[in-house]
Structure to design on (561 residues):
C-alpha cells in the first residue's frame, strides 16, 4: 500500500482508503508479464453503459474465437495477453457424466459445471452437438421450474451520477470526479439530460421518477458512479468531513462540485414516489456508503431501507474470484466483501439479485466458481430473486483499448452460460436474458436455453423527455407481447420480486403495465413518445385529491428546479 499518499504517482485521487490500491496492486502487470506491463487505472474513459447498471449497459456483443479451452492453461479472452491464473478449467470429470448428473437433477459440482460450460475439456472449442444437449436440458429444466411464462417489468433507469474514481477497466460509464469540480477545466457539467456526463440532485431524480410513475412504471432502478461527495446521510457526512485525510476515504465536500448528488438517503427518499419499487444500492455503493466507518452492511442497508429502498441489485459482482478482480477492477471491493454486503442486505430485510459479468479475461473455471459462490449465498440467505448474466461489452473500455481483450463472449459462450446457470443454480428460480446486451433475436434464442425473464422496459429520462424520434433503449409492452408470443411462450408482467405475475392476453392490446402504483394498462409511451393525455389528467386529479407521492423530507427537492 502507498500509505494513502495524496500525491499519487498516477495522479489518482485515492478512492480506496483501506481497500486495495489500484496503483499498488500490480496483479495485472504481474499477470501480463514484463513485455505487457501496464498500469490499470483509468482516468476518464468515455461512453455510456455500466456494468453496475444492470439494465443500462450499451448494446452490442463482441466476437472472439471461442474460449472453451481444453488446455491446462487459462482461456483468457485476450488477443495476446497470457494470463497465468491459478484457477484453470481442468477436471477429472467427463462431459457425459456431467450431463447425466444434470439430467438426473443432481446438484452439480464445479467439475460438472466446467464440463458443461466447455462442452467437455477433452475437446478443443465448443462441440456443437454437445452444446445442443446442454441447451435442451436447460430449456427442459426451465419449463419444470418456472413454466412457459416470460416475465418482464415496467421500469425506469435513473442513474444519479457518472462521476467515479474507481477505475474499473471494463467500464465505459464513468467520468473522472475531478471533472465535476467547480474549478475544473472540463467546463460546466451542470445536469443536462442530453449530456453524457451528469450528476443529478435529489430534486432532479424526483422529477424523473414522478414522470415515470405517472406513465405506469413499477420499478425505478438506480445505480451510479461513486461520487466523492456521496455520503450515506448527514451523520456519515460528518464522519467523512472530520476524517484527518479525507482523500484516503475518497471524500470531497459537496461544495467542491458544480452539482451535489446529496446523500444516498436523500436520493432514495426523492425517488420513493407513490409506492414505486426502488431497486438500488449495489454492494459497491453500500461500501461507499460506509467508507471511513466501522458500520456493518446490515446497519447501512437498514438505514437505506428506512429511506425507501426496496431491493438491492447484485451488480458489481463481475467475477467473484479475486485473481480476476485484481485484473479488471482492482479498486473494487473483494469478492468476500461483495458476499458480506449481500448478506447484510438480506439481513436488513431486502431482496437482492445476483449477476455475473463474463467474457473478458476470465476462463470457464472462474465462471463456475462464481456460480458456486452465488449458489452458496442463496443456500444461506434465500434472498436472491433472479440471476442476471451480463455479457461483457468490450467497445470503448480500457480492457479493449489497451489490448487486454480482443472482444467479448461468442454466441456459443453466451448460450452456454445461460444454460449452465439454469442447471447449476438449482436454488435460484429466475434467470434473466438481456435484449440490451444481445439484441432481440439472440435474446429470444436464450429464452429457449434456460432463461425465463426478459428484463424490463428501461424507460429512461432521455426517452421520456424526447417526443418522437427513436425510442432508443426501450421496449414497449406491445414489443414484448409480440416477441414472446412469436416463440410460443406466454408474456407476463411481473413485480421486481416476482411475487406478483400477471399473464397478458396477446389479443387484448394495446398493452400497458398494470402493476405500478399509478399504472392503468395504458402504454408507457404513445406512438410518438409523448405522454398519454388521459394520464396527465388523472395525475393532476390524483394530486389535487390525494396529495401525490410521499413528501421529499430531508432533500433539497425544489431548490434546484
Ligand atoms: S465502480 Fe467501476 S463499474 Fe462502477 S461506475 Fe465506477 S468505474 Fe464504472
Amino acid at each position: 500500500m502507498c500509505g494513502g499518499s495524496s500525491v499519487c504517482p498516477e495522479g489518482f485521487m485515492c478512492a480506496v482508503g483501506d481497500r486495495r490500491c489500484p496503483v499498488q496492486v500490480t496483479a495485472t502487470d504481474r499477470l501480463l508479464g514484463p513485455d505487457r506491463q501496464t498500469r490499470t487505472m483509468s482516468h476518464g474513459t468515455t461512453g455510456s453503459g455500466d456494468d453496475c447498471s444492470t439494465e443500462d449497459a450499451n448494446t452490442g456483443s463482441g466476437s472472439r474465437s471461442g474460449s472453451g479451452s481444453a488446455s491446462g492453461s487459462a482461456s483468457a479472452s485476450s488477443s495476446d495477453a497470457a494470463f497465468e491464473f491459478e484457477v484453470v478449467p481442468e477436471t477429472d470429470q467427463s462431459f457425459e457424466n456431467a450431463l447425466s448428473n444434470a439430467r438426473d437433477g443432481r446438484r452439480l459440482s464445479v467439475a460438472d459445471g466446467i464440463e458443461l460450460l466447455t462442452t467437455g475439456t477433452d475437446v478443443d472449442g465448443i462441440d456443437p452437438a454437445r452444446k445442443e444437449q446442454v441447451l435442451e436440458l436447460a430449456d427442459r429444466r426451465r419449463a419444470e421450474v418456472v413454466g412457459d411464462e416470460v416475465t418482464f417489468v415496467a421500469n425506469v433507469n435513473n442513474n444519479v451520477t457518472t462521476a467515479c474514481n474507481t477505475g474499473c477497466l471494463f467500464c465505459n460509464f464513468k467520468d473522472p470526479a475531478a471533472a465535476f469540480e467547480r474549478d475544473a477545466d472540463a467546463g460546466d457539467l451542470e445536469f443536462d439530460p442530453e449530456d453524457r456526463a451528469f450528476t443529478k440532485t435529489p430534486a432532479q431524480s424526483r422529477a424523473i421518477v414522478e414522470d415515470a410513475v405517472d406513465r405506469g412504471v413499477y420499478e425505478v432502478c438506480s445505480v451510479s458512479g461513486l461520487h466523492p461527495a456521496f455520503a450515506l446521510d448527514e451523520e456519515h457526512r460528518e464522519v467523512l468531513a472530520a476524517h484527518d485525510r479525507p482523500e484516503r476515504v475518497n471524500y470531497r465536500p459537496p461544495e467542491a462540485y458544480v452539482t451535489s448528488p446529496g446523500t444516498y438517503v436523500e436520493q432514495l427518499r426523492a425517488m420513493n414516489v407513490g409506492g414505486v419499487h426502488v431497486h438500488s444500492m449495489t454492494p459497491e455503493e453500500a461500501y461507499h456508503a460506509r467508507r471511513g466507518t466501522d458500520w456493518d452492511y446490515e446497519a447501512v442497508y437498514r438505514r437505506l431501507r428506512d429511506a425507501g429502498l426496496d431491493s438491492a441489485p447484485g451488480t458489481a459482482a463481475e467475477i467473484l474470484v479475486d485473481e480476476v478482480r485484481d485484473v479488471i477492477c482492482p479498486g473494487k471491493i473483494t469478492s468476500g466483501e461483495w458476499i458480506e454486503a449481500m448478506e447484510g442486505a438480506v439481513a436488513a430485510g431486502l431482496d437482492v439479485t445476483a449477476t455475473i459479468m463474463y467474457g473478458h479475461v476470465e476462463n470457464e473455471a472462474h465462471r463456475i466458481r462464481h456460480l458456486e459462490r452465488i449458489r452458496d449465498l442463496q443456500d444461506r440467505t434465500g434472498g436472491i430473486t433472479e440471476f442476471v448474466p451480463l455479457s461483457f461489452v468490450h467497445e470503448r473500455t480500457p480492457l479493449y483499448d489497451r489490448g487486454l481483450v480482443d472482444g467479448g463472449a461468442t454466441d456459443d459462450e453466451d448460450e452456454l452460460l445461460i444454460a449452465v446457470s439454469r442447471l447449476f443454480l438449482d436454488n435460484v428460480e429466475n434467470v434473466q436474458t438481456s435484449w440490451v446486451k444481445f439484441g432481440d433475436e439472440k435474446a429470444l434464442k436464450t429464452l429457449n436455453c434456460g432463461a425465463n425473464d426478459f428484463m424490463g422496459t428501461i424507460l429512461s429520462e432521455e426517452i421520456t423527455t424526447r417526443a418522437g424520434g427513436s425510442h432508443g433503449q426501450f421496449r414497449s409492452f406491445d414489443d414484448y407481447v409480440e416477441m414472446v408470443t412469436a416463440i410460443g411462450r406466454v408474456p407476463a408482467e411481473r413485480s421486481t420480486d416476482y411475487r406478483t405475475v400477471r399473464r397478458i392476453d396477446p389479443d387484448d392490446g394495446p398493452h400497458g403495465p398494470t402493476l405500478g402504483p399509478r399504472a392503468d394498462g395504458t402504454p408507457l409511451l404513445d406512438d410518438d413518445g409523448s405522454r398519454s393525455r388521459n394520464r396527465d389528467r388523472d395525475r393532476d386529479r390524483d394530486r389535487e385529491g390525494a396529495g401525490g407521492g410521499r413528501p421529499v423530507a430531508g432533500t433539497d427537492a425544489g431548490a434546484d428546479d
Q: What stands out?
A: Residues 1-81, 463-472, 541-561 have pLDDT under 50 and may be disordered. The radius of gyration is 23 Å.
